[in-house]
Amino acid sequence: MHGLEIGSKGQVAFASRQEPAWHNLGTVFEGELTTSEMLKLAHLNDWDVRLESVKDVLGMISDNYDFVTEPYMVVRTNPFTSRNDVLATVGERYKVVQNEELFGFGDGILAGGGTWETAGSIRDGRVVFGSLSIGREIKVGDDDVTNLYLLVNTSHDGSVAVQASITPVRVVCQNTLNFALRNGVKQQFKMRHTQTIEGRMAQAREALNITFAYADEFEREMNELFAVQCTKDKFDALIQDLYPKPEKDVKGSMVKWESKRDILMGIYTDTGDGPKTTQSLAGTMAGALNALTERIDWYRMPRGGNVDNLFIAASGFDPVVNVEKNRIRKAVLALAS
């Protein structure tokens, strides 16, 4: 349930530095790669994403069509078969962004100061992403470590803008902590596909505040939560505040709620079936926040049975998941105050 693009001969459009991803797919490498090397290893290079006129293609077949507006197909050269893939139909204002441009954008934001960690393609090539390690380590308490990454992603079907996000990832459990912090610190930069990527580097740098203001604020907030005690009873009250117990058992709603509560309590107390990930944050509001976000990334079923959703949530660029994590953060902060 990974959603990664896989070729007919089992090639996977995904690469990861040093450690295999949780789905154990793709190519694992050591050391540092250039942007072009990373693109090639993840099968993201030379896609030649382009617009082709639907009108012209249909005109080759028949002249019985009149177009009120001129639609275009987004076409790419498949990295595994070399055939032409039609990824979407878009309007005439749509501007193509090559994978090389997206990755160059990410590298440029950090002025070459980051290290490529992951890159891949999902949804049959319609969405691509890459992450760079920024080299900023965040400590909560004495020994709980979160690393900071720059995530760049976009779509080739118009569904996702060109995006660059500062993404903290807790080392022990690999769950993403995408929070909109206080004091107006920016976490994400977006650019529509009606704009060109050219000339936007300085604007992205300013918006994301690559002077590590986000990291400083994140570290301060997490350590504030670490200093506040959270008993099991408090955590249970937090669960019921965020996810109220059903008043009636409709279509198994009570069983689902009890299962969610058990999973969350298991993560929080390190008594669940999964790996022990909360020990360094045990008994604190920081541990409560971790448990609630960890369930979203690793324990829930994909929404609607869509196999892409779990991978996208754990990668940090599902906007619905990020909204939910911010809702959780606000509830934890309110209880801690």
Features:
alpha+beta; single chain; seven-stranded mixed beta sheet
Widest β-sheet, arrangement of strands: 2-1-6-7-8-9-10
The fraction of residues in strands falls at 15-25%
Q: How many helices?
A: 10
Q: Please give the number of β-strands.
A: 10
The gyration radius over C-alpha positions equals 22 Å
Tell me roughly what share of residues is in helical segments: 25-40%
Indicate the overall shape: globular
Oligomer: single chain
Order of helical and strand elements: EEHEHEEHEEEEEHHHHHHH
Largest sheet: 7 strands, mixed
Helix- and strand-based class? alpha+beta
Mean pLDDT: 82
* Low-pLDDT residue spans: 302-310
How far is it from the N-terminal to the C-terminal residue, by CA?
39 Å
How would you explain this protein's 3D organization?
The protein has 337 residues and is of the alpha+beta class. The strands form two sheets. Strands 2-1-6-7-8-9-10 form a seven-stranded mixed beta sheet. Strands 3-4-5 form a three-stranded antiparallel beta sheet. The protein starts with 13 loop residues before the first strand and ends with a helix.
Topology:
Elements: E1 14-17, E2 27-29, H1 35-41, E3 50-53, H2 54-61, E4 72-77, E5 84-90, H3 99-109, E6 115-122, E7 127-140, E8 144-155, E9 162-170, E10 188-191, H4 201-208, H5 213-226, H6 232-242, H7 253-269, H8 285-298, H9 309-315, H10 319-336
Parallel strand pairs: 1-2
Antiparallel strand pairs: 1-6, 3-4, 4-5, 6-7, 7-8, 8-9, 9-10
